[in-house]
Amino acid sequence: MSGLAIVTGGARGIGAAIVDALLADSVAGHVAALDLDVTGVADRANVSLHACDVTDEEQVRAVVASLDEQATVLVNNAGGGRADPTRTDAVPFDPFGPVGLFRDSVDLNLNSAHVVTRVVGPGMPAGSAICNTASIAGLMPTALFAYGAAKAGLIHWTKSMALALAPRGVRVNAVAPGFIYTKLWEQMATREMFDVMVGGAVPMGTEQTPAQIADAVSFLCSPRAAQVTGQVIAIDGGSLLGRPR
Ligand SMILES: NC(=O)c1ccc[n+]([C@@H]2O[C@H](COP(=O)([O-])OP(=O)(O)OC[C@H]3O[C@@H](n4cnc5c(N)ncnc54)[C@H](O)[C@@H]3O)[C@@H](O)[C@H]2O)c1
Hints:
The chain is of the alpha/beta class. It has seven helices and seven strands. It has one domain: Rossmann fold.
């Protein structure tokens, strides 16, 4: 395929690896990366960077209207915690945490996918594919209360959308990464804390890489997955299996 892919949160971390994989695998000929923060991100061939808050429909509409063609691939990848250094209550591990923080998390990790898909989806031709970046936190209970609830919602919505868009020939899938020490985790844990957590939670013993997540996304968005829709692929080193008893 040589069409356009839109990748949200495509400036860094897993999103940047998804951009690279879609181009390297020729799943897309060029990519529009929509990201809240594009400062300092190097220019790359066939990639256009767009500063955009994907929770804001007007901003998303303005960027999409500026693109030359309809997207055939959409990756709703932006997510994580809202990094606001002015917030003193921004600790995600409190089961009785503030309402505003819970709403923010649902807005970023679930509602944004609806916002972007609502803008991009109606124009996607048959043969197109959508992939949502969920998390293993959406498939099992964790101490990331709002985030996990939002990702679980994202997974359920992925399946509903797959059913709804199948008659139009548009597929909708999700990936569920496990543990990767990107900015997302840097905001929550030191490298040492993270390594201890991985040692205890990942049967395969190591964290994943952004490229490993991107590989799965690229497959799901490619014609090789033409009969795959409504699925969630966990790339988690076996974390969802639990520990041997
Ligand atoms: N890193 C992990 O261990 C892990 C595990 C499971 C799921 N995930 C998911 O993978 C996705 C990518 O996370 P990552 O680890 O690469 O984190 P990251 O923080 O490195 O990258 C997230 C990107 O999204 C962008 N972004 C954040 N809010 C945005 C907004 N409102 N509008 C537009 N862009 C916005 C950020 O600027 C950043 O470039 C997220 O959905 C995250 O929840 C990550």
